[in-house]
Amino acid sequence: MEITLQLKRLGKKKVKQVPFTLVETPKNLGELLIGCVKNQVAAFNKKRMEVNVVGFLSPTEIQDQAQSGKVDFGDLANKDLADEQKAIDNVLLAFKDGLFVVFIDDDEVTDLKAPIALSNESVIAFIRMTFLVGTYW
Q1: pLDDT 10s digits, 28-69
Q2: 62 FRET partner, CA 20 to 30 A, in 40, 98, 117, 119?
Q3: Phi (first) and psi of residue 94, to 5 degrees
Q4: Phi and psi of 115, rounded to 5°?
Q5: Distance in angstroms (rounded) separating the CA atoms of residues 82 and 88
């Protein structure tokens, strides 16, 4: 199933739109979150397993990377693989703790077990909450 994910942080204007493929259609929010995590863990681990031959950067690549503020060869120092079950446990706990909210076609979903109806045109928004923390000295 093809869906579109919108990733947003409160306080930031930039909304990242990501086309996303799920193996099976989720029946509730919990299954949707688990499907997204499994997909991302597989992509993360695949990137860690790839052999990266360090070459050279062209002037265009250096200029493009300089715009983002960091120029590197893309070599990964940390080759540790992600644990899928830990990632699933983390996302479910983060949702329960209110660290992010989920909107499916502009409707907020607050229950992990509530049934959801997705189509190929569905837009799912994950909004990471920003907490205001401070002390007065």
Answers
A1: 999 999 999 998 899 888 887 776 665 677 888 888 888 878
A2: 40
A3: -65, -40
A4: -65, 145
A5: 11
Q: Could you tell me the two tokens for 37? A: 């995590």
* Cβ–Cβ under 8 Å, residues 11 and 129: no
Report the DSSP beta bridge partners of residue 126.
Answer: 7, 102
Decide: 52 and 74 in contact? Cβ < 8 Å: yes
Query: Is the dihedral angle over the CA atoms 37, 47, 6, 124 positive or is it negative?
Result: negative
3-state secondary structure of 19: strand
Task: Report residue 132's pLDDT band, with 50, 70 and 90 as the boundaries.
Answer: low
Contact indicator for 126, 102 with CB cutoff of 8 Å: yes
Q: What are phi and psi of 49, to 5 degrees?
A: -85, -20
